[in-house]
Fold this sequence. Notes:
The protein is an alpha+beta fold. Residues 175-179 have low confidence and may be disordered.
Amino acid sequence: MKSDDSKLLFFAPAIISFVMLMLGLGVDHVFPQDWFQGWSRIAWYTIAYLPVGLPVLKAAWGSILKGDVFSEFFLMGIATIGAFAIGEYPEGVAVMLFYSIGEVFQGMAVRRAKTNIKILLDQRPDVVTVIEGNLIKEIQASAAEIGDVLQLKPGEKLGLDGELLSERSSFNTSALTGESKPATKEKGSQVLAGMVNLNKVALVKVTAAFQDSKLSRILDLVQNATAQKAPTELFIRKFAKIYTPIVVYLAIVICFIPFLFVDDYDFRDWLYRALIFLVVSCPCGLVISIPLGYFGGIGAASKNGILFKGSNFLDSLAEIDEVVMDKTGTLTEAVFLVQEVHFEPGFEGSKILHFVNALESKSTHPIATAIKAYVGELDPEVVLDDVEEIPGQGLRATVEGKELLVGSFKLMDKYAVSYDIDISRIVFTTVAFAYDGEFAGYLTIADKIKAASQQAVARLNSMNVGITMLSGDKSSVVQAVAEKLGITNFFGDLLPEEKVEKFKRIKADKGKVAFVGDGINDAPVIAISDVGIAMGGLGSDAAIETADVVIQDDNPGKIPIAILIGKKTKQIVWQNIGFAFGIKVLVLILGALGLATMWSAVFADVGVALLAVLNAVRIQYIKFG
């Protein structure tokens, strides 16, 4: 209901002017009245003009005071006041009415685009759980203060930066580090907004205010997105500053110069032609529709979960030749799953797996979660004794009086367990196990490829956009993921600085290149790309703030959608430019020859602007997915 009231308030001045204009035309031409002549007629149309005319005249005066004399408001003002001066009252009201309607549509479209973006981004946790002494209470996240102790449940996303108070806890940190292996944080470690608690309840002391969180900063960037203008938009604005004074002087020439050459010169006739020329030449159709075209693109992107930080990036993305992607968190989910299980002859597989599951349950590492998901619930008959953690290598315990080892092959080496396995041939992360001094087997755990990754790759290929994958993971893992996705260009074992060098070489060879990443280690590459794209669901502050485009739900399928939106936006903008210029030139010529009326001028200016606005707005209703 409030939305409807707001729209009615927007249109109220135009509605009042429209009703009075229609009544005036009715009395003028359909039901003529004796009283509707002279001053009463002038007063009627003046009152009809004021609701839509006063704001424009006020804006024109404001522009003049700022030194911008030849604004679109100035053109509309002198054209409509001129129409009144020669007695063309209905035309004067109509021109200003349709101009105002165009402005309202523009304002509503821009407001809607901004609202869509704000709703999309404002996904911060509304409530956090705070511990005060023996009390546990929920408060608004924005009310949390530095020093407050938060209780973070398993699976819960941290909304503020803080310091871990619990002895140990595992977090999905792939968004921050670019590593596919989640990290176990010790007491006193820094934990950042965007990390997800994985295993057990954790306590975190807040070290940064809510308004300094990553989403707050992004929201601030969005509000200022319009400051980043596309080249086309900048050109039109500069063009309008030169073009507008020229047409004002030409209108003066059209009005007065014929006096020197025309025998039956009629000032009123030539003034009317000059006013038509002024109305037609007003650049508001372009000045309105082009920024709105880009705003429409930004709004359409926001509806699809994509944030563009400026209209210039829509243009840039439309011209991309190559997309370079990080692997972890971009094409994969950074979620571990058991891939392969191998047992040596002579061992009962299910029994050993239950032993492994029981021992791994003593660990907070995410690998334990993957093993539990594969094996199932713990076997209550399995009793462990003398459980010991070997830092960085694995776990040791006694089961049924015999030694059980679970961990890396380095652990096997440490306890002199021999094995006939070529470790270099194993692609994924490996968990080896030995029982009673003998090698029992191993299982592999790998990051799960996102469901949308394959479709994203296929769609980019169909758009003739090249794809390269860069990763800090070991080359065998990168190769396996690339082969599954159908990516032919890929590089692994890259340090952050090596990623930058590799990207520079790709950029030199391929032309315009976009980079997609999500971790702090991706920020340098994002910064030097033609268009930097960050995965924003769990993406690091550095990556998101450096990026030009943010994909809010981490879905790689949005990458080709973002490119398509860029291409469609550019197409619509150039459609509007061509349409507006074509109609204007035609009516300008007809007006100067005396073959066009003020109504033709209204269509050539405001009508064209309205059609351009509708054309710009339609992008928000196109399905790109």
